[in-house]
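Entry 14. Ran structure prediction on the chain below.
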Amino acid sequence: QLQLVESGGGLVQPGGSLRLSCAASGFTLDQYVIGWYRQAPGKERELVAGISVLGSTNYADSVKGRFTISRDGANNTVYLQMNNLKPEDTAVYYCNAHRSRGGDYWGQGTQVTVSS
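Output, structure tokens:
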């Protein structure tokens, strides 16, 4: 079965940190472009961070300098390290794996809530 599973979300105070994980089963993440997206209530889903097959990264302006996306090939997992979290980071976070020659997968999402 081909699937992505996110984990690591939760409730954190402003200024705190979380590390989200996106683990794949049934396929190898190294062959895919990976994106972390988020969707807040009443808002459209937006791209937060992406990493190419070769390892180049890109970030939304709102998270630059605070979030870091990285690959762990040995564990077939992609991480999103989130530091200095703000209330506006509250959302459901999803990972996506995409390959131009075929293959597009989404995880079920993990809730991140930033609140005091």
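The mean pLDDT is 96. Will compare against last week's run tomorrow.
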